[in-house]
Inverse folding.
């Protein structure tokens, strides 16, 4: 698509990146068919092709409005459109640029500004853990809408203490240790059983996605630099990988190299960090090999919901089902719309609850066709969002594997 950048964007880093992305789009509309918000709303401007067009108009100098902002806000950033696009349009990076520009030009009402501020400052803050503990104490008294955001208190079990020559770093995450601490300790136990030690750098915190996607891109970048500084001594000491058990964090850390490419002090380190980053499921081929004979898988159908950040953001598909099956688990994805977002999408379920819950219920209906004993996923956001709509237990797949370890 030919774009004539307005003078304010010509010769800027964002302008150059956006122009190159726009040039690839041939406006065919294949992406529209698989876009969740287009499927729900049926409005061209709530599909990828329409949003791309809106961003192009803004880059060409047209003044964005609240309506432009709403169409961009309603995008889940699920990147399903990238998986469908035959021309390789990098929609995710384009929408980041579009949102940043629109945010700077279109003021939001005070109430919206406050909610977004509370989310971006509150979720990654050290105060989140104590607040979650408090919420769990009074969980039974909370209204249903709030209770859905506060998982019941979870026992994390013991963290393995055996040293191993093979070491990986793991990002504990900002909300995960408070909401579902067993995911991290189960990861460490499974890796320990395979002869790999899990290290957590105390000073690493939020991956930066929360702030970055709420248009505080500078705040997100600051968190990314903090993580790089916290991890760097371990990288120099030779850790094999930086493991992510939340695919939403993984997709972001794999982008550090791109996001910090113009930062002379961090570009090279960020690139190295991204190269070393692996979703936990990328270790599964080796784990399945090493853990054979050490796992007693329970019978029973398990339904796997692959998060968008795994199947579209990281383009990782089929690994969990295949390798868990090799270990004796009966894990399948749903037959209908396995590619579609569950509506969680980071803070989306708070900012766009109607669409988020509609997508959640649609996903749960499709998963229920399998009559699963349990649902598993690979991202804490999807797990808590899906759990809020079903009595069937929803967990991380690594918790199942951990529970089945023998001895
Ligand atoms: S499928 Fe790709 S090329 Fe076609 S309209 Fe969508 S983004 Fe553009
Ligand atoms: S990222 Fe998802 S919601 Fe946004 S335009 Fe693409 S397919 Fe639609």
């Amino acid at each position: 698509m030919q774009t004539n950048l307005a003078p304010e964007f010509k010769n800027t880093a964002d302008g150059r990146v956006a122009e190159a992305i726009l040039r690839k789009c041939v406006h065919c509309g294949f992406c529209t068919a698989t876009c969740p918000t287009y499927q729900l709303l049926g409005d061209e401007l709530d599909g990828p092709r329409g949003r791309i067009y809106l961003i192009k108009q803004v880059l060409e100098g047209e003044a964005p409005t609240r309506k432009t902002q709403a169409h961009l806000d309603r995008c889940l950033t699920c990147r399903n459109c990238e998986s469908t696009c035959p021309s390789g349009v990098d929609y995710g990076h384009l929408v980041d640029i579009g949102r940043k520009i629109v945010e700077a030009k279109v003021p939001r009402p005070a109430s919206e500004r406050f909610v977004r501020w509370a989310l971006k400052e509150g979720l990654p803050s050290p105060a989140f853990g104590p607040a979650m503990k408090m919420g769990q104490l009074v969980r039974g008294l909370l209204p249903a809408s709030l209770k859905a955001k506060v998982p019941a208190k979870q026992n994390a079990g013991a963290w393995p203490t055996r040293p191993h020559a093979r070491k990986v770093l793991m990002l504990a995450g900002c909300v995960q240790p408070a909401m579902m601490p067993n995911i991290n300790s189960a990861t460490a136990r499974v890796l320990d059983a395979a002869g790999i030690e899990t290290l957590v750098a105390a000073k690493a915190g939020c991956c930066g996605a929360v702030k970055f996607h709420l248009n505080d891109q500078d705040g997100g970048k600051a968190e990314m630099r903090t993580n790089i500084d916290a991890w760097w001594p371990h990288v120099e000491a030779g850790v094999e990988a930086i493991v992510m058990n939340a695919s939403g964090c993984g997709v972001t850390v794999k982008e550090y190299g791109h996001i910090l490419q113009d930062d002379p002090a961090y570009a090279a380190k960020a690139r190295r960090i991204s190269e070393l980053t692996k979703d936990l499921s990328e270790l599964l081929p080796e784990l399945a090999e090493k853990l054979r004979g050490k796992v007693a898988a329970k019978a029973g159908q398990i339904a796997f919901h692959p998060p968008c950040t795994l199947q579209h953001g990281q383009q990782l598909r089929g690994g969990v089902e295949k390798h868990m099956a090799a270990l004796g688990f009966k894990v399948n994805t749903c037959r209908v719309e396995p590619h579609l977002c569950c509506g969680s999408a980071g803070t989306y379920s708070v900012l766009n609850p109607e669409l988020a819950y509609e997508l959640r219920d649609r996903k749960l209906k499709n998963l229920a066709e399998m009559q699963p004993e349990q649902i598993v996923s690979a991202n804490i956001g999807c797990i808590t969002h899906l759990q809020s709509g079903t009595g069937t237990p929803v967990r991380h797949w690594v918790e199942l594997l951990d529970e089945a370890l023998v001895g």
Observations:
- The mean pLDDT is 95.
- The chain has 23 helices and eight strands.
- The two ends are 59 Å apart (CA to CA).
- Residues 217-236 form the longest helix (20 residues).
